[in-house]
Amino acid sequence: MRNYFHKYHIFSNLFSILFYFISSYINATAAKMNLPYSLIGTINFVGALSYVLGSLSFGHIGDKFGHKKVIVISSLIFAFLLFLFSQFFGLSFLFAFAIAANLFFGSFYPQVEGLIAKNENALGVDHSKITMRFNLSWSLGNILGMAFGPFLTVKVPQMIFWYGLILNLIASYIIWKDYIKFRDGINFKPSEKLILRSIKIDFPNIKIYRRTYRLTLFFSGLLYTSILSLFPKVISSAGISLSITGFIIVFANLSVFFVFLILGKFSIWAGNPKVSLLFLMVLPITSILMFLKMSSVIFILLSFLGGLCYAIPYTFAIFYGLSSQENDQGKQGGLHEATIGLLFGFGPLIGGLFLDFFKSIQGLGIMGIILTLIVFIIQFRFLKKIG
């Protein structure tokens, strides 16, 4: 596996575990405090705005000053904040913690994306293989973080803070030493299987592709982020223990990992928008299933399908987003992560309002149907533009 993955894939994985530990901690704690859906959504929304701020403010800095230096400095600052936040509790604390954590991760992911994309492009790695392996690394971390986050929140919440503190300190030390030795390069010899190039990218229309799939990702992903943040309370309200909600919701991230594996292996969608459109049919299917009578099995199915609603357009968006002839992968990574931040903010907020208004999970189904109409209008206009 050494010629397929390197240390920055490992860091992406470990920090994604931390991201979902923290996200699960915030949402599970809010559910334990019995906060209204709309207030839980507001916490996520405010946190996500700081994620967008981090992405847009710091995403491009690594292109100019070095991605590794930005990661080291931000990791040391976040380690200190984790120690500080471990001493507090309450509603104001949840807001502050959400803001600080999202600001850090909003600056972290564009640096890792830019660092990996630039170096692997220079090594001749096939672009679809670059995005697939990066996606697999962080999505595997999401699975572990989401599965055990609520459990740790209920049983040993301090474990989340100590994991984050230790990870940030160790990562900053290793990356700084790596910077001293290789500057902003990566010491990696890719397998020959990663070098094959077979996908033709429509660079004259690349800005249209990026804009279209980022918009598609935003609207389709709203349902997924609603599920992640609001299902802990929805499920616990159905009489299921809060400590095991993570093991139900984790199916959303299992499906994300599954999609990245399959779409990375079979790239018939790449450069073929009409085929890509067929994959997006999962959004209306998921929305309709929200009107069924709920049970543990249905919750698991909805979680799994919700992950597909996110991962499929995510794959399209990051593939075209990091396809660049201008050496601006950090900037493009920042714009991509800003899109992620927006959907993680607006999804819980809008989803919470729909749940509070309709007093049942069917509210999310109605929201999903509206999102379906928007997504397909965007897609049909896109197909008309590119002929």
| Fraction in helix | over 70%
Mean pLDDT: 90
Fraction of residues in β-strands: under 5%
Radius of gyration: 20 Å
Q: How many H/I helical runs?
A: 14
The total beta strand count reads 0
Head-to-tail CA distance between termini: 42 Å
- Describe the biggest sheet? none
The unreliable regions are none
What class do helices, strands and sheet pairing give? mainly alpha
Order of helices and strands, N to C? HHHHHHHHHHHHHH
Shape verdict = globular
Q: Please, could you describe this protein's structure?
A:
79% of the residues lie in helices and 0% in strands. The protein has 387 residues and is mainly alpha-helical. Helix 1 crosses helix 8 (206-237), helix 5 packs antiparallel against helix 13 (329-358) and helix 9 (245-265) packs parallel to helix 12 (296-321). The model has no long low-confidence stretch (mean pLDDT 90).
Describe the structure concisely for a colleague.
The protein is mostly helical and 387 residues long. The protein is 79% helix and 0% strand. It starts with 6 loop residues before the first helix and ends with a helix.
Task: Annotate the secondary structure layout.
Layout: H1 7-32, H2 37-58, H3 61-65, H4 67-85, H5 91-122, H6 127-155, H7 158-182, H8 206-237, H9 245-265, H10 273-279, H11 282-289, H12 296-321, H13 329-358, H14 362-386
Q: Which key terms come to mind for this protein?
A:
387 residues, globular
